[in-house]
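FORM 7B - TANDEM STRUCTURE REPORT

SECTION 1: FIRST PROTEIN
SEQUENCE AND TOKENS:
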Amino acid sequence: MSATSATGTYEPKTKLGRITNFVDTRVSGSMMVKEFGRKVFPDHWSFMFGEVALYSFVILLLSGTFLTFFFDPSMAETHYEGSYVPLKGVEMSVAYASSLDISFDIRGGLFMRQVHHWSALLFVASVSVHMLRVFFTGAFRKPRELNWVVGGVLLILALAAGFTGYSLPDDLLSGNGLRIIDGVIKAVPVVGTYISFFLFGGEFPGTAVIGRLYVLHILLVPALILLMIAIHLFMVVIHKHTQWRGPGRTNTNVVGFPVGPVYAAKAGGFFFIVFGIVAFISAVFTINPIWNYGPYDPSPVSAGTQPDWYIGWVDGALRLMPGWLFGMPFEWNIPFPWGVNTLSLNVLLPALVPAGIVFGLLFAWPWIEAWVTKDKRIHNLLDRPRNAPTRTAIGVAGVIFYCVMWAAASSDLIATHFMVSLNDVTYWLRFLFFFGPVIGFIVARRIALALQRKDREIVLHGVESGRIVRLPHGEYIEVHEPLDEYKRYKLVAFDSPEVTPAQPDAKGKISRSEKRRGALSRFFFEDRVAPVTPAELEAAHHHESPTEVEAREEDRAPESIEKH
């Protein structure tokens, strides 16, 4: 119930209405609800990867808040007096002791530790898969180039959040990981040792690194992730949501469901599904059993240590890098006026170059593809990966490049479990490091082109029905069923760019940059399968189809068929 006062203002009669109206008149909440609540989102399973990333981050915040109440990030020395008997009386840092207390003495502590760790793995995985989905479907194109960059920054921040949290317990496994990072930092010429001393608070392992990582892990990195998520969602609202091609779907509309109430209800239910799965995995499967590793001690080096999957590729690159090549060392001593500095390229190159290649191409790709295609149009419709064979092949090559380094981080375990030579494993992985992406590129592009040819064949001739018909002259053929309109639309409605040769400028000259662009255009689009044109489709339909032949033959008497 409501009324209008003499001044013409809206005055609700109920108490709840008055409170709501009070808030609305001061923050314009109804306008925001009207704007965002009517935002339409398409409904497709591939869009859920971004939702999983958001929900797993919420779980990370909730579980991390619980752990913050009990974790002490001090590297002061103490003797363990907790419930875990095998480590009683062992000297360790306060950080490691508090991690053991959370695991064995805090009610629900071990469960929350595992929820936090599993959701961290899921967060990085879902961000990675979401980025792959965006790449393979072309959702990074105009006007979403900046949102793609935001996603790349989010991926780097997710790796940073995972690594800083992974190092906090100060156990033997995380200490070995920090030792690798210390070696990489010290390989930086001139300033590397100073950066290491600042980070660790002295010579490794120092006395301050855990506290500093703790500040990064609970304050700076999460704040930046929240900022990037807010920017990302803001851009999703500003731009039309991408959608798959289909009848009635264009670059100027979105076919789907509004946020309220349909999508909000579905999203809420999906959040609890993700939460339930993470909780189930955390309750059943042990991860990062720090009590088995013991406190960190710089003197021993344990075999078989494996970092989490999302950071293992850097460790793998270090393992693949040789110290010498063709009799030449990768470590040089360079004299300076203040003394001799060592340049350790055998550490610096594998630690920085692969990551630079991956993230450099990732951030630059929207502009690279737009430059090659000379395509400045708005793209709100997605590509099927097979319809962009070169882009898909480059994505597959990048995944193989990453996976080879990831596998190299487990080279010792591969050798021991399969009882093969560690040197042979390293040699094969070095071969795959260089040639695996090339092989993956070639195979993926040929598969994509083959699938395009198959789609073209299906559009023109229909799908196999499994029914065999004998024609009047004795030939046996299989009846092909024509496609329905929606399936045919999916197979024929896609962009197929052609080669754009190098174009002269206003002075009639072709610059070197334009020549390179023309060469890349040939590389991208020389092998292409053009979509079926309306003329080709009409010509194919004007021919007598096997179904029509079968119908005509059924109208005849069986005797006449037998005579033929």
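SECTION 2: SECOND PROTEIN
SEQUENCE AND TOKENS:
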Amino acid sequence: MTTLAPPPAPVREDGARHRSAPPTDGGLASRARRLFTGAPEDPRWARPALWAILVLATALYAWNLSSITGNTFYDAAVYSGTKSWKAFFFGALDAGSFITVDKPPFALWVMGLSARAFGYGTWQLMLPMVAVGTGSVALLYRLVKRDFGAVAATVSALALTLTPITVAITRDTNPDPILVFLMLLGAAALLKSVRTGRLMPLVWSGVAIGFAFNTKMMQAYVVLPAFFLVYLWAANASLGKRIRNLAVGTVALIVSSAWWMVVVDLIPASSRPYIGGSTDNTVWDLVIGYNGFGRIFGASSSVGSQGNGAGFGGEAGLYRMFNDIMGGQISWLIPFAAIALVAGLVLRGRAPRTDARRAALMLWGGWFVLHYLTFALAEGTFHPYYVTAMAPGIAALVGAGSVMLYNAFRNGSAAKWGWVLPAAVAASSVWAVVVLQRVSGSGTLYTVAEVVAGVAGTASVIGLLVGRFTKRQRLMGVAALAAVVALLAGPAAYSASAATSSTNGTNPTAGPSTGGMGGMGGGGGQRPSGADGGPGTNSGEAPGGSGDGQEMGQPPSNSGGSTESGTTESGTAESGSIESGTAESGTADGRTGGAMGGGTQVSSAMITYLKKNQDGATWLVAVATDQTASSIILESGEPVISMGGWSGSDDAMTLAKLKSLVKAGKLHYIVVSDSGQGSSNSEISTWVKANGTAVSDYSGLYRLDASDVS
């Protein structure tokens, strides 16, 4: 009897063959098997490749956790939130809830819950960051795979994993990794609503972006024009239903965005902390001012910041993403992504209105373009790590575009499509060599990456063209793999550097220093302590590791009265560091500095003295800025008042408020200097010097008691 062979597995548009579905028992064993092997219709290599990428991402984000310093500013707020639920809710810098940080608190809540559950320390704060970083890679893979297949999804996931600035910021305690994850959740729900026409996924999309707003305010809204356009154009519903659903989704967005702001602004100012970064002690002013239009137009409603973004990311302009500072952080794949976006939309030009692939291209293209223009043209304070929010759009376009361009190159008209894929590969390969040339001499790693990018890029372009015109499919496939190597060699080198080197906790970047403030080699300030659950409680003990990589839980000696915790570079001066016994307060984040205590040194010996003589006060001391306060909080474990916010220019402390705190015995010590600016600050400095008792051993430190208040 003749036995018929089974038919070959069908070939999908992305070039991968479907597997024949194996028999399943529908039980736990079957589900566990699919977790590691993937769905029956996936190619056999797809799920193992995904797991390998996720392991790589986790390794990059979590490598040598003990060397991660984090951002002292947010670390202190998280620590304070573990000591007070009031400070936790408001996102206060100190456990006494005198002033908030200048961002909404959702990211602090996530890290704070981890710290409350597992104790306060580096890995406890970093655990959520590593989780959302790896989760973003997995989520992007799923989104791209649904519309463009496993090959595209794998390339996208690998591209996001190896985005240098994403590696750098995920190894930090800034809120951006959580922001990106929430935005991707919003995109996932939006695309589901577009496909199905159902309302609830659109509502959940609005909720996700609302939580992103409560992570970093207006930056979460950059993607909204693309979201609205994609749904209005491509959703599988009538025009009337699309408009109604958008209205409901917008309500969900507004509610989930505004609830915390409304609650806080409705609470009397006397019953809550001052809103750091605002001019009138309201969250609304923070939204539209310093964290809103101030970032775009270069002057917030609270302080002037014209042009200060150039100090971190270079001058504003369309070329900013390609300059010496930003080029190695994000620009590697931009040429390929831009070509892929245009070509992809042309390829889907005659598709139906509801075509899922075109809708996805519109979403990821809008994500990329809107972020690019926002960051490139922003005149206000601009840190390089902001652009990690742009990375998913670039990665998705590279993955989806690589498959679409390859299929068009292989099957389309040679005259029309025979040059597009080679041109895209050549453009990004040449650009990679240019970026790596800028840092030639910085190390063997970058030299090797430059050679690999140049050789693999050249081989890929030649192989693609020869294979296309000689009809050699295997050669084209090998050339396509060479293109992936060429395009990712540079980002891989920078990412490896970010994962294995100490970075500046306030302004983290990857790769060699190229002139921007911060970057490699600078610590973020006092590191959280280890297994003891928080900053030291023994007088005089500095709880964290040192900025030179000291292990957690090994307090440095205070015998010399100094604690080296790395420098925090922010703005035009080093701010908020405790190095060689000093905590220096200066200008930062593009905001005008110099308020009460500006430039005053606060030594570890002074902190020991303050703890010994706290005499039951709520706050250990009042200082000028958040940077100085946060370092003292992390060293002492006690609440510290930041009178002027991030740079000393907030009107958080008034003379009347100071007198009230002193009279109630809640504050005894204050650090002032002769550099006070602004009438209220000068008034406070004058009053303190006239009525307080100078502590002779520590310049600028004054003791105040209830009897000193008239």
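SECTION 3: OBSERVATIONS ON SECOND PROTEIN
The first strand starts at residue 569 and ends at 570.
DSSP finds 26 helices and nine strands in the chain.

SECTION 4: SIGNATURE
Preparer initials: ____
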